[in-house]
Amino acid sequence: MKQLVIIFSFLLLSSISFSAQSQTKPTFTGAKATLKHYKVLYVLNNGEEKRIGAILRNIKNAMEDPRIKGKLEVELIVFGDGVALYNKNSPYMDKLKDLMSKGVLLAQCENTLKERNIDKSTLYDFISYVPSGNGEIIIRQQQGWAVIHP
User: Fold this and answer.
1) Number of domains making up the chain
2) Where is the signal peptide (predicted)?
């Protein structure tokens, strides 16, 4: 009987101790940026203003994250309906030039232009071109780039 009381007391104290420990939550500070360099490819294949605004904000926010600021290589690949971003009539020229001035690569899929009969002269003259958006994603991912499609 005495052993049963001792075991029961031990279990009771253990559960109280465990309960107290589980109530103390460690402070979460997010992932630690331990590498010297990070690479990210943002993917845009949607021409909705809301989606375009979101991807431009996402890029800006990532570049300003104090953990990776100055360590980040960024490319924005655009294809499909996303071509609206690079259209000379779009309201995004200043934001795109600002991103470019910070080293962001701005790329457009040439397949989209061919399929939609879009002339390069209708797009901003400061963007770059790749043969296919999907090819760019495949290559960059295999090169170790993070791929984000917000």
Assistant:
1) 1
2) 1-20
Share the mean pLDDT of the chain: 90
Instruction: Judge contact between 88 and 124, C-beta under 8 A.
Output: yes
User: Residue 101 sits in which domain range?
Assistant: 38-148
Rounded Cα distance, 114 and 124, in Å: 17
For residue 20, being part of any structural domain is answered with no
Among 77, 141, 65, which residue's Cα sits nearest to residue 108? Answer: 77
Calpha distance 104→55 (Å, rounded): 13
What's the rounded Cα separation, in Å, for the pair 63 and 91? 22
Q: pTM of the full predicted structure?
A: 0.82
Mean pLDDT of 77-90: 98
Mean pLDDT of 35-63: 97
With respect to residue 31, please indicate whether it lies within any of the assigned structural domains.
no
User: Which one has a higher pLDDT value, 57 or 24?
Assistant: 57
Q: Which of 28, 31, 94, 85 is nearest to 62 (CA)?
A: 31
Query: The domain spanning residue 135 has which CATH number?
Result: 3.40.1260.10
Q: Is-contact 145 39, C-beta < 8 A?
A: yes
User: pLDDT exceeding 90 applies to what percent of the chain?
Assistant: 80
What are the residues whose beta carbons fall under 8 Å from the beta carbon of 37, sequence distance 6 or more? 71, 72, 73
